[in-house]
Design a protein that fits this description.
Elements lengths: L1 E10 L7 H9 L2 E5 H9 L3 E4 L1 E3 L8 E11 L5 H11 L5 E4 L10 E11 L2 H14 L19 E5 L8 H11 L5 H12 L3 E2 L2 E2 L1 E3 L3 H5 L8 E6 L7 E6 L24 H7 L6 H11 L5 H12 L2 H10 L28 H5 L6 E2 L7 H17 L4 E6 L6 H11 L4 E6 L2 H13 L7 E3 L11 H12 L5 H13 L6 H12 L9 E5 H4 L4 H4 L2 E6 L2 H4 L5 E5 H9 L5 H9 L7 E2 L11 H5 L17 E6 L6 E6 L8 E6 L4 H8 L5 E3 L10 E5 L6 H5 L3 H10 L6 E2 L34 E4 L6 H10 L13 E7 L2 E7 L3 H19 L10 E5 L8 E3 L5 H11 L1
Parallel strand pairs: 15-24, 15-25, 16-18, 16-19, 17-18, 19-24, 26-31, 26-32, 27-28, 28-31
Antiparallel strand pairs: 1-2, 1-3, 4-5, 5-7, 6-7, 6-8, 9-10, 11-13, 12-13, 14-30, 20-23, 21-22, 22-23, 29-30
């Protein structure tokens, strides 16, 4: 590999006295040179270099290009330590050498990286140097100067002539560096402010060129930016958005919404205006500030003035309207609106108009089932063959054939080892059986042992294990199983049980040498990195939504107060930090994953510990303090994000959300999203969206079950709804399979059957806000204190739903709703089966035939008629 660098022709065996002369000499030696030759000249023969091309002077302002980047380590670090760090960050070193002052007592050295292409953008050079300094704070701070002279050395200690870097490789190490300290968000903000990088959603606006269009979709973002790009040869091009020097008063183009402003609408004030009622100046002004944020709204305003008002009034408003570019929609107020107290307004007239129940869906292109299946298989094999570490996300419709696809892959590559992780024990057993039927050797398949739902383990033992996990005693399982094993090991009638116990007690050692490991999401997440080495990991279903995001626990304020007084190392500090938080305030907290858990004896000394999970406090990433909804006791709920080893994972699911995965794994792993071809369903999905049907709404509209039963046309229909709703009189007979929101995943017993789904499966707000808070969303905004009805745009669909303003918080909620609804609809397998699913929910499902009328109105009218 050849690189560009400024190289001094003269060789030195000690530090020269006239550094300025050496710098001028090196600056004249800009050239392209073989990397190994450069390493030898600098490391062994004492030639000085300036990485940058200095034109017209020797200052930083004269740097016009750079390809190699050097770091100077003088104190506190050994080369082997830095080499290990570079290896772990996947930043290959081109060469390294000892400086003249290096000694056995104190090693001093320089490390050189080679970018794969010459960078000729001064702004990008400045940013790369700054990022390197953040990644390696151990180095000399002067390394981030673009005019820095690096003297040669007395010994070359490492060289890799094939080592080359692409800018994309700096991203994850940089974000890891930004996570040091108390606030990743603040660190990124300060860095971007200092180096004039545009920020978006609490992150630096830089990355792969393929992601640049995402910024263009947001009004005002690209207008604030100067785009810097670096074209790379072996990796995709890279961009950084520099923030423009904006003049005061500069405004951006308003992002207008497509809403109906003519005819009868949700806003009575606008209805009055449209009907020709003469309104006061302040009222017309408030209307206009809103209408100008709607496509065609400004024109509509002038047309009404021209139709009902005198010419002078029309001309005055036509003239004044040009000076209203900076005005935001005026919020609803009784100062200008006589209907303020009686109107169910949404904050502004724009938001109120958006509260119509219409659903707008962009047209989707669908493919044949064969084309969709082939696309899935190609995506899976491409991900399997990829050497890129990170999350490889492959969307796969329910019933498209993802299980068959990865079984075929396993058969095609008999020399490769696989781990298949599934959400439930039942699915684990089904997949293992399908592998056997597909002809895979029984000896090649190893199915991990789980206690829950396993008939080999008594219910009492299963309950004890579940209770131990709920208290954070995750190592208690082996102890309890070991006690049970000693009781039954000599019983000849329980040999199979003893064998199962033995496998479980072996732990991860039982996996040694196994080619195919079939396990659950929960078991897989416990596997240490050394066990995963050498395996291709395929995760069936959305592990983020189904497993990781469910790790939310609860502990009482009283328990934390006691823990704080006991002076338990680390745990007491965490308790005191949490207790300082204001009630209702969601906060991030630094995880302490290496703190040993408290023993059962230590927990017993805490009188309040019974029933609460204290041990997992060290793993908390976000928390909130609120009164318990049932008892009124002040409790703290906390979310424990799951660390995953840095390797390659392939995830197959119908509901993967690329943005949420990227937010969750940002700074730790790259996320790769594969293009999907969707097949049209063979069966029908008919949905009624007029009523929200959350838990509270459904409790007042129980007649919806009769409506769905009539649609299904059977005496004993199968209706999936909330678990607690099944106890409603008459509903229990409509749920023979026992399915409800939360337990429907992977069940095939309703395949080919027409079914009903009733309700919108909203979760408690903590389930959304704790996740979003951990992902750096501002969930403490006043307007998001409670969700409220508003228009949502999600996955090419616009609809009315009770949700939040904050974009990432809203997306976390939409992602959860989409996942649950897709799992329930998928039980009928309408992709391949000619049956019908009837859905009554405000959240629109993909490929649904939408009915927006009030479907319960006829039932109410019929009741009234019967009473009359």
């Amino acid at each position: 590999m050849k690189v560009y660098v400024s190289l001094d022709e003269e060789s030195y065996n000690r530090k020269p006295k006239d550094i300025v002369r050496v710098k001028y000499s090196a600056a004249k030696g800009w050239q392209e040179i073989d990397l190994r030759n450069l390493a030898d000249l600098v490391g062994n023969h004492g030639h000085a270099i300036i990485p940058g091309h200095l034109v017209g002077g020797i200052g930083a302002k004269n740097c016009t290009a750079m390809q190699v980047f050097a770091l100077d380590f003088d104190h506190g670090s050994s080369f082997q330590e830095i080499k290990r760090k570079c290896d772990s960050l996947e930043l290959p070193i081109a060469f390294a050498y000892h400086t003249y002052s290096s000694s056995e007592k104190e090693e001093r050295f320089r490390v050189v990286f080679a970018h794969e292409a010459l960078i000729e953008d001064e702004f990008v050079i400045k940013i790369v140097l700054a990022m390197l300094y953040k990644i390696f704070p151990e180095c000399d701070s002067a390394c981030k100067n673009s005019d820095r002279l690096f003297l040669g050395g007395k010994e070359l200690i490492y060289v890799d002539e094939n080592a080359r870097l692409a800018l994309v490789q700096f991203l994850i190490p940089f974000y890891e560096a930004m996570s040091r300290g108390e606030s990743r968000k603040r660190n990124i903000f300060n860095f971007c402010k200092r180096y004039e990088i545009l920020t978006y959603n609490n992150t630096a606006a830089m990355g792969l060129m393929e992601h640049l269009p995402l910024y263009g979709e947001n009004a005002g973002i690209m207008e604030q930016a100067i785009i810097h790009t670096v074209g790379e040869s072996t990796n995709p091009a890279f961009f950084i958005l520099e923030k423009k020097d904006l003049h005061q008063g500069l405004t951006y183009k308003v992002k207008k919404r497509r809403l109906s402003v003519g005819g009868e609408c949700n806003c009575q004030l606008l209805n009055d205006f449209n009907g020709g009622r003469e309104l006061e100046h302040n009222t017309r002004f408030a209307l206009l500030t809103n209408l100008r944020h709607i496509v065609g709204g400004q024109k509509h305003f002038l047309e009404i003035l021209e139709l009902y008002y005198d010419r002078a009034t029309y001309e005055k408003w036509e003239k004044d309207i040009r000076y209203m570019a900076d005005y935001h929609p005026q919020r609803c107020s009784e100062e200008f609106c006589p209907y303020y107290q009686e109107c169910n307004h949404a904050g502004t007239i724009v938001d109120t108009l958006a509260m119509d129940r219409k659903i707008y869906i962009e047209k989707e292109t669908y493919f044949s089932l064969e084309e969709a299946r082939k696309c899935l298989e190609e995506n899976l094999e491409q991900a399997f063959l990829s050497s890129a570490f990170g999350m490889h996300l492959i969307r796969a419709q329910t019933a498209i054939g993802k299980t068959k696809a990865y079984i075929d892959l396993i058969i095609k590559y008999p020399e490769k080892k696989f781990i298949i992780a599934l959400p439930t024990n039942r699915l684990k057993e089904e997949v293992a059986e399908r592998m056997r039927r597909a002809g895979i050797n029984e000896e090649d398949i190893f199915m991990t042992i789980s206690t829950q739902g396993n008939p080999f383990f008594p219910n009492e033992l299963q309950e004890d294990i579940a209770e131990a996990h709920s208290r954070g005693l995750h190592n208690k399982t082996k102890e309890l199983v070991g006690e049970y094993y000693n009781e039954i090991k000599d019983d000849p009638d329980k040999r199979a049980v003893a064998e199962a116990c033995g496998l479980l007690l072996k732990g991860f050692k039982a996996l040694k040498g196994k080619r195919i490991v079939v396990t659950t999401h929960a078991y897989f997440l416990q596997m240490p990195p050394e066990v995963l080495t050498g395996y291709t990991v395929i995760i069936d279903e959305d592990i983020l939504q189904l497993q990781i995001f469910n790790k939310i626990y609860k502990i009482s304020e009283q328990c934390l107060e006691e823990l704080g007084k006991k002076k338990v190392p680390i745990y007491s500090d965490i308790a005191l930090e949490i207790l300082k938080a204001e009630t209702g305030e969601y906060k991030r907290i630094t995880q302490n994953p290496y703190v040993p858990p408290l023993t059962e004896e230590q927990l017993s000394e805490l009188e309040c510990a019974g029933g609460y999970n204290i041990n997992d406090l060290c793993l908390a990433g976000a928390f909130v303090k609120n009164p318990d909804r049932e008892s009124g006791e002040m409790v703290i709920q906390y979310f424990c994000p799951q660390e995953m080893s840095r390797m390659k994972y392939i995830v197959l699911s119908a509901t993967l959300n690329e943005n949420i995965y990227k937010s969750y794994f940002r700074g730790r792993m790259e996320v790769y999203f594969y293009p999907e071809k969707k097949a049209a369903c063979k069966g029908r999905l008919i949905q009624y969206t007029y009523h929200s049907l959350g838990r509270r709404d459904l409790s007042d509209k129980k007649q919806v079950f009769s409506f769905v039963k009539k649609l299904l046309g059977t005496a004993r229909p199968e209706i999936i709804t909330f678990k607690e709703s099944r106890s409603i009189q008459g509903v229990s007979g409509m749920n023979n399979k026992g399915l409800h929101f939360g337990n429907a995943i992977g069940v095939n017993s309703l395949e080919g059957h027409s079914i009903g789904i009733v309700g919108t499966p909203f979760k408690a707000e903590e389930a959304y806000k704790l996740i979003a808070c951990y992902l750096d969303a501002d969930v403490n905004r006043k307007e998001d204190r409670r969700p409220r009805p508003q228009r949502v745009t999600y996955k090419k669909c616009s609809f009315l739903l009770t949700t939040y303003k904050e974009p990432l918080l809203r997306e976390v909620q939409m992602y959860a709703l989409e996942s649950e609804m897709e799992q329930c609809v998928g039980r009928a397998r309408i992709l391949r089966k000619e049956c019908t699913v009837y859905v009554c929910s405000a959240f629109p499902c993909e490929q649904a035939e939408i009915h927006m009328e009030d479907y319960l109105k006829d039932i109410e009218n019929k009741k009234v008629a019967e009473c009359d």
